[in-house]
Amino acid sequence: MNTAEVRWVRADLRARRVQALLTVLAVTGIVTALITAATLLEDGTNPWRGLFVRGNGAHVWIHTKDAPDPAVLKAQPGVTDVAGPYRSAPATLVQGGKKTPVALQEMSAVLPAVGRPILREGRWLDPANLSGVVVERSFARALGLRPGSSFSVIGLNGATHALTVSGLAESGDQGFYPEWTPGLAWTLSGTLDQVEPALGRSESVTGLRLDDPDATSLIVQRTITKLAGQVQRVSTWREVEASMELDNRLLGVLLALFGVAGLVAAALALANAAGGRVLTQQRDIATLKSLGFTRRQVIRMLLVEHGTLGFAGIVLGVVCGRVVTAYGLEETVAVPLSAGPLLAITAGTAVVVLIAVWLPAWRGGRTPPIPAAPAVPPRGHLSRLARLALLVRLPPALVLGARDAFTRRLPALLTTFGLAIPMMMITIGLGCWATLDAFKAHPEQVGQAASLIVRPGSLTSAEANQVALADPEVIASYPGTEVDALVPGQTRTVRARALGTVIDPYPFSVVEGRMFRDRGEAVAGQGLLDLLHVRIGDRTRLTIGGTPLIVRIVGRVLEPDQDGEVLSVPLDSLAPKDALPPQYYSLVLRQGADQAAVRSRLQAQALEVSQAVNPSDRLSVIRVIIVALVSVLALLGLANLLTASAVGLRDHALDLAVLKAMGLTPRQVMATLVTGTGLLAVLGVVTGAVAGALVSSGLIDLQGAASGIGAGIGRSPAPLTLLLAVLTVVGAAVLVALIPARRAARARIPVTPR
Q1: Where are the domains of the chain?
Q2: Three-class SS of residue 557?
């Protein structure tokens, strides 16, 4: 570009600084959302990747009654190394009167080569301090434990032992607490022998590291066959990865949806802005061509001017995306976005920007070199809207505004769609917000009819149930037991929950099929149906402690736990040898009861009480994401409105003096200009709101099904909320159009084109 071209581009950008800044910020927000979404969906923020690599984790963990021979396991084809076997025993952690189940796992004072915990705070285990333990970090945070904190543990024999937290560590071999229970603490073998001296009340845990992670199922099946009935349960790297990634992938999908739709809206905004500038600068462009500028030079100037704004937004978006994923999500980021997706996002956005600005630039290059050509709006018939305004005898200002709205069909279409797409995404965001509110206000609709989980503690199961039911706020108590079940093929374990009885079943939220009515019937989450490749009405066979359990799945329930991979049966469906006293009781409280107060009262009576984890609590960050993305979409809408206002003023600048001469007051002139832009805004906003309301619940249900919870959770925004949103956006659009219209209407001299 020569000096004259650069000066023209610089002068034009300075003349419309606000609109240029809005365009840059909008593209920046869109690119940031796309990069963050790709990072989340690529598992770059899934801590499992970093923890597994740094800790040289095991792909498979086998839980057996007796310790297997590690040499035999390592000799299997596909197994490169073995971790353990380690002895593990259950215990109860007591702190401040609160009792929490914990698994104490043996570990050496020297960190092993495979399955190595990553120490985050404090010190590792020291043989000189047998009372010291290292607690898994998420479990420690939930209990408020820090290095140096003291607590007690109660073994299965009832003896109490005082322990101290030596350090906090993370592991890629077990998911975060409370999604993965019980909590985990590593101890020396001497410490574990003191807490649980009886070998019969513990289990052995052995890790297998594989050379091909895709062969996990095959090797698990071989190992179970080789150990001949010794295996109690199996966990694989896929389960741990899935438990850590659920919330991040939900955020990633939401960001990707907003990002892609926002990119389309940004392309429309850029095309509209470039086309608007070409229309408002036709006389300038004609003058330049009469002075010797070629068509190629004009196209190049327009491409550079509007493309610079888009590319500046892309560069800032890449920087902001890296900052957000590195610092805004610092608790989870382990691996940054790889070069391939980053390059694809950058190049794709650049191509969209170039296409969006090239078409109007090409039209600008075809402007004839006639400097004196007056800027007259195109002629044509009255639009149907203008005819309707005449028919119902609206005020002249509104009739003229209705006529002006669709004078130029293509800019009007770009403005309408440029507002409809952001409004559609805003409506979908409001639907996500409404879904979270429904989770919070009506947890029974997502499988959480019980607010509190009570464990007997030092009492018997019957005594615990009596104490719980004696509380005036408790209206129902359902006995429950959870066990790990091997799926058909015995390649992995899933959660099998026995809750309620045939006569008094737990009030599951059944969305397909029906509730179980007899022994041998069960309900399942969407994740389990997908895992087993079964449908409602099919029979399936699972193995619990070596005993087969054959059930007929009669219904699908909304299951927020374990990615929906949970089978629920009545307690009296378990075999006699598995039908132990209930591990816990699920308590349903009265509507409006204070959960914290009930929990405190029950804890004061020697019960272990925990609160159910509501999905809305885990996904509360979505609200922040929605607010941020709505702000970006609002910038896109604002840029479109400014373009529409500028084109309207340009087309009717010469009409202002005529309107005043006809007797229209400045307010009526202003109303004419605002009506033209306002009608486009109303059409785009209403269209987007209706489209968003129609698809929001369906999109949320699709994501619910993909995450394992299942379809049936989606909620559309409330009619009043949607109406307020539409009125707010339309009101903001009218205010934006009012500012330039007011200036033009109060001008003392006719406004002439540049």
Answers
A1: 1-58+243-373, 66-229, 380-443+615-754, 449-613
A2: strand
